[in-house]
Amino acid sequence: MFEIALIFLIALGLAWPLGRYMAGVFSGQPHLSDRLFGPIESVIYRLIGVNPLQGMSWKNYAWALVFCNLVLGVIAYLILLFQHVLPMNPDNIGPLSWDLALHTAVSFLTNTNQQHYSGQAQLSYLSQGFLIVTLQVVTPATGLAACVAILRGMVGGRNKDSANEGEPRDLGNFYVDLVRGVLRLALPVALVMSLLLTWQGVPSTYDGAQVTQTLDPAVEMQEQSVPVGPVAPMVAIKQLGTNGGGWYGPNSSNPLENPTPVSNVLETVAIVLFPMAIVFMAGYMLSRRRFAVMSLLVMGVMSLAFVSATVYSELQPNAAFAGLSADGPNMEGKEVRFGPELSALWGTFTTQTSNGSVNSMHDSFNPLGGLMTRAGMLINAIWGGVGVGFINFIVYVWIAVFLSGLMIGRTPEIFGRKIETKEITTLGALIVLPTIVILGLTAITVGVPGLAQNSNPGFHGISQVFYEYTSAFANNGSGFEGLGDDTPWWNVTCVIALILGRYLPIVLPLMVAGWLASKRAAPVSSGTLRLDSATFGVTLIAVILILNFLSFLPSAVLGPIGEGLELSTTILSRE
Amino acid sequence: MMKKHTTNMLDRQVLSNAAWLAVKKLNPKAAAGNPVMFVVLIGTVITALITLQRMFTGQSFGFELATTLLLFFTVWFANFAEAVAEARGRGQAASLRSAKRALKARRLKNGMEQIVDGDTLRKGDQVRVGQGEYIPADGEIVKGVATVNESAVTGESAAVLREAGGDHCGVIGGTKVLSGEIEFAVTADPGHSFLDRMIGLVEGAQRQKTPNETALTVLLAALTMVFILVVITLPPMAGFLGASLDYTMLIALLVCLIPTTIGGLLPAIGIAGMNRALAANVVAKSGRAVEVAGDVDTLLLDKTGTITFGDRQATEFLTAGQVRMADLVSAAVLTSYEDPTPEGKSVLELAERQDHRVPVRPTDAEYLPFSAETRLSGITLADGTIYVKGASDTVQQWAKSRQIAIPGSLENLVKQVAQAGGTPLVVASESQILGVIALSDVIKPGVAERFVRLRALGVRTVMVTGDNPITAGVIAAEAGVDDFIAEAKPEDKLQLIRDEQAKGRLVAMVGDGTNDAPALAQADVGLAMNSGTQAAREAGNMVDLDSDPAKLLAVVEIGKQLLITRGALTTFSLANDVAKYFAIIPAVFAGALPAIAALDFMGLNSPLTAVLSALIFNALVIPALVPLALRGVKLRPMTAEKLLRNNMLIYGLGGVVLPFVVIKAIDMSLGLFL
Q1: Contact B234 A554 (CB under 8 A)
Q2: Which chain B positions have a beta carbon within 8 Å of A551's beta carbon?
Q3: Rounded Cα distance, B402 and B406, in Å
């Protein structure tokens, strides 16, 4: 318990100054970091032919973001498809199938890191060390850029003083935001993190595999080859950028990726660091610190509640072992070094933030824990992915503002700007989207025999399928495992879920922010709904929970809830 | 208007008409405008077909039939709610139409009178109307004065004065001249008269969705989509578990989940909002205008007529020097007997109110009426005694010309009255200065309390007056307005509205004169007085038939109430789903997946009674909320945060808890029969 509190406090303590620094970086005002990064950036702008002073409307911003991703995606796909003829492939690894290459490219492009390929055996050094790591740095910066643009739009855009009502507003320059996010944030923080991890013993080398003698020479295997490499830097960005795809197959449950209690604390903090910092950043960028405090409290309360439930769940015995061993916490799929609490904390954080890295196997969580990890992904706005998590949070805020606005008898407005039919139509699409994608794909996959290729029948089988699509749509990437998921069906449908789950929740809110930006802003009066009040915070939590509850309760009943009820009846009947 | 209709809004006649109308509204074309109820209608048809199919194949069909009937009643109740709301508007339209009978008109052409039908009159025609005749068309008086009974339109039987020139020259077709004769110029072509437009507005109220209502409909449609997806993806998932689901139950689940409560009441709420405005005798030219009124940030109020009574009134007698109060009062009263100005009348009222002994009205005295040249009014009694009253400087000049000493205390008295925002009238006799009558603005009762309410709701009030800043400041402080503009010219209003709007505020104002028209048009809510000019009535987006400027405050409250009712019932409707899930989900899976039965912690009798109870609750909640939808949620003045907290507690938390209790109760009573 003490460690959980400590990790929360360290994360908050670091997120505050980081958020402040981020607000400075994106403010457009001269900033201390200009001295170091300014010259490098101007070279980059000249190389890619971008005028950094050119502002963009929401349309241009969204187009630049999509275009940039399209180019990156095509390059990624081609590298994966032709890795066997490209350099840096000493082990002569073959090409990926068209569908697996597509899924892998899109998965990393969307900051998801869902892996349908098995282990590292199917990727060349070029694919792994160059392509994937590049995307792990660029994609969180992309999400952050979109978030920053939306925040600018919410307070009228950068040209709010000169533009007239109804005129398109300047939400910033996508390329500048992206380059700054990479150079001034992702890389330096990852550098510090990887040094800390190296200090804790995470390998950081270009040497080949280490060959060691086994302790007991009597066994058949005399020596063991331990693969190493530049693990620490990759783990750093994996954790910080809500990426999740690790160096080793077992991810951060592997002792080389996560060797000590300190490294576990560092890596757990890193999961939530940027998402938390973005909340602080939003407070500074909107010049509404109390709004940031409300957001922090809403996310914090929900996060803590979910962590508590998962910890409670994993402290219960595993039903499968009932009567077979002494009663104790559910240790199936967990590292003994971390135990149930820290595994549950990681599991909750990594699903809330759309990170997807693991230090234990979520497939083995007790049903309540499985439900919490699912709920974290479905809500996808408690901290959430870098940038996109806060965007999702804002979408919930908009919906809550609409309902509360009606309840206080004013046309709903946020920061003085009215939410009207156009905006609500777009938000309505965002409400329907997860049910179309997740429920639709799950129903088809379990409905058509032979498509699912899963290892379990019954409730758990549905959970596996549902989790896979939820993980893809939420751009989380963690897996429930046990799926034969390298099939064209799985690859293609997950690509659909990945793309819809990444780009619509970025572009549609950008659109709404763009529209809101060009509206006339009404001044605050005592009739204005205060978004920083406790009442609104509670309303917001209710909206978040009820929307997801209504959308996903029946499917949860056929998944983890049914499983839990079934297990509890089994336990009862055995006793 | 038609106050007789407002008293029993739910009488038997209205209800039985509405019941029949609700059946007529079942036709798919009419239903398609409301996506939520349309889904229920389709569900009804499907369950009806399932029932028939089971009936003909010899299977048991009791549950299917019950479900079909409950779904049918859900739709019918929703239609009924709308029909009840419309019925009131229809009643009002009918009574308006009776005023619009075929009228003959005396059209003037080249000075000759021609008798023509009222509906052949065109804009610009000159018409003469005499005592006891009906006014055949809308127009503006060009000649003459008349008292007019406008009760056909306003419901007020008190006659109103209409005269050429000024701001009271407008006449309305269908009203009756009680006395006098007027000539007026027609200002509206047939079919476009005020009465025609009002009938159209009242009848067509339900056809114009306001922007906010549209936005809410979109949100409800999105939620309906979500629930359709939730329900249609269940059979394949259950199939994976080897279970097959009952389609009637799935349709019941869908209908219980989609927001039928708010979906069913939404049209009624909107119409009822318009009706509440009508009941307050305000005709809104669109539903949007009423809604915008709820958003208003700034109210621009004329001091005169809105905040204070139209005219200054005597409020105090102040004696100068050693003069006895009785002398001052009797002089003041004597000078006022023949003074027709409101100030003069108020002197008499004040003397009476203060129980002074009042001299009898002299019969053989000579009166000096108030005139612009003398700026004095006075009286010369038979015994030669002279009394005058008038503005301070005028009376002092008059006194000086007669070598009457001016007491030193007079200066102080005059100053004292002026500083308190009043106007001093000095009273003198032929021998001495008697004292001062303080004329002050009297604030209408209840106005100050209303401003407090409005401030709590976040509405700023700005008073506009032609008075000097001192007077204006005193009245502003007394009435409790937030700001005031003194020495304002008519064009200042327009400028002020533009300034406020540039700051992002929504502005409402009241006006009646032609020079108010631009400001009325510019304001987000322009409430024109029915007694005002045609131009003002055209420019505003609402007309107050009672011509009471203070009505603006009521309109703001009606607008807010309209939005709150919508928001509260939406929240209630969504919160209900939690309990319905727990009632129906275990029932849907009960047969096939026994593990899930544990979710039924309400302990309902059987899956069938569980589903029927949820459906009965779902259907009955609509008529149960009709009175609330028609009346509107009670609006109490409080900050936005408190309002939200109260409504979340009542409609959010209450919406979660109530259905658990009611569904359990219905289930228990069903258990007695089944």
Answers
A1: yes
A2: 226, 230
A3: 11
pLDDT digits 0-9 by tens, A288-336: 999 999 999 999 999 999 999 999 999 988 877 766 766 788 888 888 8
Measured CA to CA, the distance from residue A238 to residue A246 in angstroms comes to 7
Q: Mean per-residue pLDDT for A62-91? A: 91
Ranges assigned E (strand) in A307-446 = 413-414, 417-418
Q: What is the ipTM of this complex?
A: 0.91
In Å, how far are B294, B364, B635 from B288, measured between CA atoms?
A: 10, 62, 20
DSSP state of A317: P
Q: Give A457 or B397, the one with higher predicted confidence.
A: B397
- Nearest residue of chain A to residue B230 (CA atoms): A551
A vs B, Cβ pairs < 8 A, gives: 221
Tell me the pLDDT band of B69, cut-offs 50, 70 and 90. very high
Active-site hit among B125, B246, B295, B302: B302
CB contact under 8 A, B643 and A409: yes
| Mutant choice from B213, B214, B220, B226 vs A, greatest count of A C-beta within 10 A | B226
Does the beta-carbon distance from B578 to A446 stay under 8 Å? no
For residue B402, is pLDDT > 90?
A: no
Q: How many CA atoms lie within 13 A of B189 on its CB side?
A: 0
Q: List pLDDT tens digits, range A357-367.
A: 889 888 888 88
**Candidate from A269-283, A431-445, B261-275, B365-379 with smallest mean pLDDT:** B365-379
Among residues 438-457 of chain B, which lie with CB inside 8 Å of chain A?
A: 455-457
Looking at chain A, the whole-number percentage of residues with pLDDT higher than 70 is: 97
Q: Could B563 and A528 be called an inter-chain contact, meaning their C-beta atoms sit closer than 8 Å?
A: no
pLDDT at A574 over 80: no
pTM here? 0.85
Of the candidate ranges B43-57, B122-136, B365-379, B608-622, the one whose mean pLDDT is the lowest: B365-379
* Test mutation, A403, A408, A425, A466, chain B, max B CBs within 10 A: A408
Query: What gap in Å lies between CA B537 and CA B545, rounded to an integer?
Result: 11
User: Considering CB atoms only, which of A410, A428, A542 is closest to B295?
Assistant: A410
**Total Cβ atoms within 10 A of residue A512:** 25
Could you say which of B456, B568, B599 has the minimum Cβ distance to residue A557?
B599
CB B180 within 8 Å of CB B146: yes
DSSP string of B80-132, one letter each residue: HHHHHHHHHHHHHHHHHHHHS---EEEEEETTEEEEEEGGG--TT-EEEE-TT
Rounded mean pLDDT of chain A? 89
B499 labelled catalytic: no
Contacts of A555 in chain B (CB under 8 A): 230, 233-234, 237
Render the burial of B653-670: b for 16+ CB within 10 Å, e for the rest.
Answer: ebbbebbbebbbebbeeb
Q: In this complex, do B599 and A565 lie within 8 Å of one another by their Cβ atoms? A: yes
Q: Which two tokens stand for residue A545?
A: 């929970």
User: Over pLDDT 70: what percentage of chain B?
Assistant: 92
Select from B240, B578, B599 the Cβ nearest to the Cβ of A461.
B240
- Cβ-Cβ contacts under 8 Å for B59 (sequence gap 6 or more): none
CB contact under 8 A, A407 and B236: no
* pLDDT over 60 at B207, yes or no: no
B574 vs A: CB within 8 A: yes
> For A447, which of B239, B297, B506 is closest by C-beta distance?
B239
Helix (H, G, I), strand (E, B) or coil at B503: coil
State whether A462 and B561 contact (CB < 8 Å).
Answer: no
Give chain B's radius of gyration (CA, Å): 33
**Mapping DSSP to helix (H, G, I), strand (E, B) and coil, where does residue A132 land?**
helix
pLDDT category at A570 given cuts 50, 70, 90 is low
